[in-house]
TrEMBL record:
Record flagged with keyword Coiled coil: yes
Family annotation (Gene3D superfamilies): Tetratricopeptide repeat domain
Protein name from the UniProt record: Tetratricopeptide repeat-containing protein
Repeat recorded as keyword: yes
TPR repeat residues: 187-220
Pfam family membership, one: TPR_1
PANTHER family: CELLULOSE SYNTHASE OPERON PROTEIN C, TPR REPEAT-CONTAINING PROTEIN MJ0798
Keywords from the UniProt entry: Coiled coil, Repeat, TPR repeat
Annotated source species: Selenomonas ruminantium
Coiled coil ranges: 135-162
Length: 470
């Protein structure tokens, strides 16, 4: 079950396709520096000042690594964004050493952090392909942490401005606010340390770091998101139910604290991917819908929302309800295509959306759209022969496709409904221009289905076209 869930979650996220020779495998050294000055006013913590310098150096190292990654990466059909490059760089960069040195500058102390890091370009492909679901998620986490640091930095500048000219009472008030700023910064620092442990797959130590971040700042949404994600990782290797429950609890906390944060709702939806409750799919849909409302360009979530609708579609007994969920399934994948029109896997998934589950007859319109989607996927490099059942129709060989459907579904006496198979055979005759045989095929399918409305529509459509044609 876990493997199936992972497959669902990993379908779309980054949607960047690399060429076979993405980069030259080598290790590159990165050196970077960060600074922070204290002693120019209020009484600040030297320990926090060192951490500020260290995170500043780490940010500079990631940016330098990003320049290197961009220079060696060949991308098909588009360019990596700066955020995507920095995310990849952060994932594959390891800090080998850091040195923090106090420097006297006038009447102040400047803490200087020098970082030596390494980036292994041979792991770039693997980091992307193994974490398609998580790359956008990681990008958002880095972005949110950076925004929090910048917010604290601007707040601190304003607090320190004109400090020396204030009276003692006002200074005490500013000192209190600066201490609060330092606590919130330290929380971000613990959050960052937790992320480093996740990269090393040291999940328990990562959780401890996130817990320290939350103790210092219970309203740090990104820490709640990260600890929820790490409990899901931990559930893969131990105490499944206990860690899933903890992940869900933390994700709910994230949505309460940050209801306008799309990633909070995504994380809550992820926890429901692991649940077997009767209403888990409905809760997943609710959470994903909240996320795409907040971030309509979040392609990974449109994809996962479509998958959730597909599960609802598969459970439907009513034809009307089935088609309703199928259309929602299709709409979600179409949204991904609108955002990422050159992604082969998405075209394939949209084709699957039109195809359905072979338990309900397909309309001619949807069948044609399905074939067009598969053709687009193939044009973009999708290997279809082992993954798509309609390869002959895609190639325009309708007679051969009819033989395959008859052999695989009717002659083989499979559990698939005969009406569905005969309906597809009739559609193939129609696409091949044999209207009379198509009409007879639809009649046969209609009889076997007990009067299915979709087959009736197919039959009436072909009859009208046949009359107009002849």
């Amino acid at each position: 079950m876990i493997t199936q869930i992972k497959r669902i979650l990993m379908i779309v996220g980054v949607l960047i396709i690399f060429s076979g020779e993405t980069c030259i495998a080598m290790v590159q050294n990165i050196e970077a520096d960060g600074y922070y000055i204290i002693g120019d006013g209020p009484d600040e913590s030297h320990s926090v000042a060192k951490d500020r310098a260290r995170l500043d150096a780490k940010r500079a190292a990631i940016e330098k690594a990003g320049v290197y990654v961009e220079s060696i990466t060949v991308v098909k059909d588009g360019q990596l964004t700066k955020d995507e490059i920095n995310t990849i760089s952060a994932q594959i960069m390891s800090i080998e050493s850091e040195k923090i040195t106090p420097e006297i500058v006038g009447e102040t102390v400047r803490y200087h952090c020098h970082i030596l890091a390494k980036i292994n370009s041979s792991s770039i492909d693997q980091s992307i392909l193994n974490n398609r679901r998580k790359l956008y998620e990681s990008e958002q986490k880095i972005k949110q942490q950076t925004e929090e640091i910048e917010l604290l930095k601007k707040e601190l500048i304003l607090l320190k401005k004109g400090y020396n000219s204030l009276g003692e009472k006002d200074k005490r008030e500013i000192d209190y606010k600066i201490k609060n700023n330092e606590n919130r910064f330290t929380a971000v620092d613990w959050n960052d340390k937790g992320t480093d442990y996740v990269k090393k797959k040291e999940y328990q130590r990562a959780i401890e770091c996130y817990q320290k971040a939350i103790e210092l700042n219970p309203n740090l949404t990104i820490a709640w998101i990260n600890i929820s994600s790490t409990y899901l990782d931990l559930a893969e290797i131990q105490d499944y139910k206990e860690n899933i429950d903890k992940a869900k609890e933390c994700a709910m906390k994230a949505t309460n604290i940050g209801p306008e944060n799309a990633l909070s709702w995504v994380m809550l939806a992820y926890t429901y991917e692991y649940c077997h409750d009767r209403d888990a799919v409905d809760k997943r849909i609710f959470s994903y819908k909240k996320a795409v409302t907040l971030d309509p360009k979040y392609t990974a979530v449109w994809n996962n929302l479509g998958n959730a609708y597909r599960l609802k579609m598969s459970d439907c007994k009513s034809d009307i309800t089935y088609e309703n969920y199928r259309q929602k399934f299709i709409d979600c994948y179409q949204k991904v295509i609108d955002l990422k029109p050159r992604e082969r896997d998405v075209w394939r998934n949209l084709g699957k959306a039109y195809e359905g589950d072979f338990i309900k007859p397909i309309s001619i319109k949807n069948y044609i759209k399905m074939i067009d989607c598969y053709r687009n996927a193939i044009a973009l490099g999708f290997e279809y022969k082992e993954n798509i059942s309609y390869q002959y129709s895609i190639e325009g060989n309708h007679k051969k496709q009819i033989e395959e459907i008859h052999k695989n579904y009717i002659a083989a006496n499979t559990s698939a409904p005969d009406a569905c198979a005969w309906n597809i055979i009739a559609i193939e005759f129609y696409l091949d221009g044999d209207y009379n045989t198509a009409i007879n095929g639809f009649k046969n399918a209609l009889e076997k289905s007990g009067g299915n409305e979709t087959i009736k529509e197919n039959l009436n459509m072909v009859r009208k076209e046949s009359q107009a044609r002849y």
